[in-house]
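Our collaborator T.R. sent over the components below with a one-line note: 'Predict the complex.' Nothing else. No constraints on interfaces, no templates requested, no preferences about which chain binds where. So this is a plain run: every listed entity goes in together, and whatever single assembly comes back becomes the starting point for the next discussion.
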Amino acid sequence: MPSKLRFRDDEPQEQPAVTLAAFLDQSNATAVRIEPGEDARDLIPYLGRLSLIEIGFPEFRDGRGYSAARILREAGYTGELRAQGDVLVDQINYMRRCGFDSFAADAPLDEAVAEKMLHIFQHDYQPAADAAVPIWKLRHG
Amino acid sequence: MYKYDNYDQQMVDDRVAEFKNQVQRRLAGEITEDQFKPLRLMNGLYLQLHAYMLRVAIPYGTLNSEQMKMLGHIARKYDRGYGHFTTRQNIQYNWINLEQCPDLLDDLASVEMHAIQTSGNCIRNISSDQYAGAAADEIADPRPWAELLRQWSSFHPEFAYLPRKFKIAVIAAPEDRAAMRLHDIGIELVEQNGELGARVFVGGGMGRTPMIAPQINPFVKADDLLSYVEACLRVYNRYGRRDNKYKARIKILIHEMGADEYRDQVEAEFAHVKTLGIDPPRAELERITEFFAPPAFSSDAEADLDRSDPDFAVWIDQNVKAHKQDGYAIVNISLKPVDGIPGDASADQIDAMADIALKYSFDELRVTHAQNIVLPHVAKRDLHAVWRALRDAKLADANLDLISDIIACPGLDYCSLANARSIPVAQKIAKRFESLERQRDLGELKLKISGCINACGHHHAGHIGILGVDRKGVENYQLTFGGSGAEDVSIGKIIGPGFDEDGVVDAVEKATDVYKALREDGERFLDTYRRVGVEPFKEAIYAK
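Returned assembly:
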């Protein structure tokens, strides 16, 4: 079973991601990794030249990465946004909604289960970083 | 009341399908208990001392008779014939099998009910004023706003793994019947220049570090509400403490950074979030509001009551409250009989309340945070019939807000977190003060019992609070005085060394004796305590 899933058509980004501190220290890297306690907004001035942002999930219960992902997408980032670490198959749906399009889990991810869990919900109540149309918009046009 | 459209129903049905799949994978051993735990919690399923416990959501405490009947059906089919109404205006069942849980959720979904986000570190069921739509003092019905928040918070993808649980209450009256400022977010609807908006308090809570929420914004417009609350949550999700689960609630974050700094951060986040288009058009709030239009009250309902039956008259005086509509009244059904378990109701009693609501209360019931039930719209001419029907179901105890109307958590009899039993203490106190005449002489006296410092029994907000602790393997009970969850909100203070089970009952009785000796005209226990302070009470209670 693979531990990686990707929801992009472009070439996978395989370059090593540098730490946020190294990146901000005038690195010209195109891939950066941020940890739960770090501020995703530090990256906003550089989004144009980044092709991979990896967000670490050392522990699946730590939900800070969900906000980090949305903040990056809301700021216009269009490159690969990867959730790496203790990422569980039942979390992928909400992570996709927050803007992640790539997953590198410590443990194997069952693709068939992931596929099923991603498509159970037909609608969403609230807009997020994906293309979902919220129910209130469906109601009122 | 609110009625699901196809979208709402689909969301609940899809959630059942999702959880079925997760339960199957858990039973097949494909996911570990550690991984399954947050999934089952987000579906209201706890592992308790003896079995799984399922908490069913009752949004803002409102339900119709068909839904109430379903709660009775579930008590019979999946539990041991009773259910336990909680301080979150929900109901929980203590004897559930994991294998049967998906079927149970299917049954709930058939009457527009669910257990979504009734547990876990996410936004929980939104609570509200149990007299909403009926109270004479409300400026609006708060429930449309609560429903708007319910939909926004349901399956919110960013806030499913918060540092800790998150509770929101919405009220719209000067009298606070929902302990609004003891919530993570408390919203009071207020009017400004003829427009309704939200006065927002953030960072209240009970638990081991009780806090009263400071005001963060005096007026958030309806059109900005969801963006504003989203900003409040985002700041919390990013900066709330995750190093220690006992310091992870938003109250600790706000206490440590200060309300002013938190407000500034929320304002900055709001300025950004507001550009994202997450607020629905006003038409959505209007759509929801239509569901809460007043029922078809009769304009010529008689107001005269025959009070010749003394038991009926006492019940009227104690449990029946003024309604905004002439000729109608709000009926409180006490779930606090002496010898009973606070908040418990049998399946037969649940059915009886459903039948009475259908016949006499425009098909509506409410659950209160004090673990009682309300029939919000009863014609005064029907009060005697309602009382007789309640009496037949052993539901006519006339003790609302009296010393035996005790809030108690399940305690060590059920809960895996508890240090001490709550239920037997509640029963002993109710027994000691069994005489209704004596209770009525003591007047309003809110007594609340928690079996551990997590404070599920709201002891911090009790005029008299009792906290069960474990002292070297022996159950010990601390007494607090002076708390209130109402508009005069305050946190009770520990009066001195704790007691054993019988000792705490004696101490409560001595406290009421002191109150009776010192009270001035019209003073409640709480008022006297606030005026004279703790010393006279301590002297009597700890006298050698």
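Summary for T.R.: The mean pLDDT of chain B is 96.
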